[in-house]
Specification:
Length: 444
């Protein structure tokens, strides 16, 4: 085995041995899929701090211990491939957005190493089902423009919805203390490879509102992104292509509904959007230049004029129907079963969620999203947030954590932040119930 694939390189950079040992405790407590999915395993009945407190090597050993094929690799294997659900896998997938900044390492007023936290959380994400994939969407990849790498007050703006291109990846996400040993790109690739080993696909969120994007200049101040500037458009495409070549295979496009000036009275972003034909070109070029035909492009609120989004190149759109009404979702699935490239999605919750959903309502929506069909091959995509799998503490919510970057630590330690960011005993019980729903969905 190659000691220098991205996972082994990351372990070496952290001064960990690449020789892995089976994690017998995780092997004992793991949830199993029901029936034919018995070999699909993950850790349920947890709160995130159970995993986030571990070393990265501990997390990798748990991931390898939970191998679906039952083979234990004492050194992480080379050449990981994405689980194969065909080119249009995104049309049926379950999308789970993880706020990698919120679970990053927070200490002494700084935020960093979010991608390492995402790796540690992977064992608790259910693997993909027989007929449809699970896909993690990372909330942040690039630097933001409101104070990247800094913890701020609970009501001080530090929005993920503003980003800088033409520079490296976010200080919130990358472990820059080890970039002399492993590059930011290789750190991201290590996450993707481990997700693929888990049978999970990986994607990222991207904004398209021009005034929410900056282009970094080597000499001089950043400039505002301009969709009318061919150099900026090329930069946008190539930044996305770089991530796709690292193994990402999904892009969630913020405000996609409004591309080309559509329904602008409900547009809440800031700045100009790409023209319709321009976005068609951009998505085509991302697929072409990356050499990947299996990319899933997901459009926020892109769900009323289906043909418009099919022709744009999207595979799924959010915010068309919630999971509150099982029969309505089941009927919509039946109506759209012949649409094999694109489908609107079942929303459990979205990034604008400000709380207020009870545990029972969320569980009902997840149940609908996982089972609202006659045939599993006709399933509609579903959209969840981190809070839908791992409930947040009562005085915060998904949108608040997208807009701000507070620490909830009581002693200035990263561990205390992780312990206090999420609900505790009730969150653990809720996570167990989510796991029970996925257990039955995985053989579909």
């Amino acid at each position: 085995m190659n000691q220098c694939n991205s996972v082994n390189k990351l372990l070496n950079a952290l001064k960990e041995d690449t020789k892995l040992e089976r994690n017998t405790y995780s092997n004992y407590i793991a949830f199993h899929g029901i029936g034919n999915a018995f070999n699909k395993r993950w850790l349920g009945n947890i709160v995130p701090s159970d995993l986030l407190r571990l070393s990265l090597k501990d997390a990798v050993e748990i991931i390898v211990t939970l191998s679906e094929g039952g083979v234990f690799y004492d050194i992480f294997p080379d050449n990981m491939q994405t689980p194969n659900y065909g080119d249009n896998w995104g049309r049926c997938a379950n999308y789970i957005e993880i706020n990698d900044r919120a679970i990053a390492y927070m200490s002494d007023g700084c935020t960093c190493k979010g991608i390492l936290s995402c790796i540690k959380l992977l064992p608790a994400i259910p693997p993909s089902a027989k007929s449809f994939a699970n896909c993690i969407i990372l909330s942040q990849i690039w630097q933001n423009i409101y104070g990247d790498a800094y913890v701020k007050g609970a009501f001080e703006e530090n929005s993920i919805y503003g980003l800088r291109l033409n520079t490296s990846y976010s200080d919130n996400i990358i472990d820059y203390s080890i970039v002399d040993k492993i590059s930011p790109e290789e750190q991201l690739k290590a996450f993707v490879d481990l997700a693929h080993f888990r049978g999970i696909k990986a994607g990222f969120r991207h904004v398209i509102s021009a005034d929410q994007m900056k282009v970094a200049k080597i000499n001089g101040e950043d400039v505002t992104f301009d969709w009318g500037n061919p150099e900026h458009v090329e930069l946008y495409i190539n930044e996305c292509v770089k991530l796709m070549k690292l193994g990402f295979e999904c892009m969630f496009i913020d405000s996609a509904k409004h591309i080309g000036g559509y329904d602008m009275e409900n547009y809440t972003g800031v700045g100009a959007l790409p023209e319709y034909g321009q976005m068609q070109y951009i998505l085509y070029e991302i697929r072409k230049r990356s050499g990947k035909t299996n990319i899933s492009f997901v459009g926020e609120k892109s769900t009323d004029d289906f043909q418009r989004y099919i022709n744009m190149g999207l595979n799924a759109g959010t915010d068309f129907i919630t999971g509150d009404n099982f029969e309505a979702v089941k009927n919509l699935s039946e109506q759209l079963k012949y649409s094999r490239v694109y489908a609107p999605g079942v929303e459990i919750s979205n990034d604008n969620n400000e709380g207020g959903l009870s545990y029972e309502q969320k569980l009902n929506r997840i149940n609908t999203g996982l089972f609202g069909y006659i045939l599993a091959s006709d399933k509609l995509p579903s959209f969840m947030q981190m809070d839908d799998i791992f409930p947040l503490r009562q005085d915060t919510n998904t949108h608040h954590l997208m807009m701000t970057n507070p620490s909830y630590s009581t002693d200035n330690s990263a561990l205390s932040h992780w312990e206090n960011l999420f609900a505790k005993d009730d969150g653990r019980e809720y996570n167990k119930r989510v796991g029970e729903l996925f257990a039955y969905a995985l053989e579909k």
